Amino acid sequence: MSDWLIYIALFFAVFFFMEGTAWFLHKYVMHGFLWVVHKSHHEPRTGAWELNDAFGIFFAGIAIALIAWGVQFGGPTWAWVVGAGVTAYGFVYFLAHDVLVHHRLGVNIHPKSGYLRRLYQAHRLHHAVDGKAGCVSFGFVFPPSPERLKKKLQELAPLRAAQRNKLDAKRFTPDGETLH
């Protein structure tokens, strides 16, 4: 097999691998120990930027470094191909997530059917939950069906209630006074 076919295959493998990476990081890191950063994405935005945008900048930095290493600094060809795959996923993610779903560039599209509608609905269902517990749909480019996500939201309702009760218990002192 010629080298260029291998590099094309690597590019697409990285692109699809990024969906799994995004799912894992979103579920276990962003809704886990880095909730303090990601939380800004689940609250009303007050300006053009939110703290959560740091994640995109981080991954862009990795992609830029890989491309620069492979193109400018004599690194292996695979480095810029991997960087290009990460960049392509980031671009698709930006268009679908930031532009389509969150209207960050002022583009107000509401798909009526098909893949884009499914993607839109899946991410809106992710945001249907207050807080980090009990959310659904952590990937993005390959969304589950809205019906499946709605069922999962119902199954996770007790988890969300327990999380609310735990937070409510922390807000009050033993004598009933509210903590600030």
UniProtKB/TrEMBL annotation:
InterPro entries, A to Z: BETA-OHASE-like, Fatty_acid_hydroxylase
A UniProt-annotated Pfam family: FA_hydroxylase
Boundaries of every Fatty acid hydroxylase domain copy: 12-142
Identification of the protein by name: Sterol desaturase family protein
Provenance organism: Rhodomicrobium udaipurense
Family: Belongs to the sterol desaturase family.
Domain of life the protein comes from: Bacteria
GO biological process, one term: xanthophyll biosynthetic process
Example of a GO MF term: iron ion binding
Spans through the membrane: 6-25, 54-71, 77-96
Keywords: Carotenoid biosynthesis, Membrane, Oxidoreductase, Transmembrane, Transmembrane helix
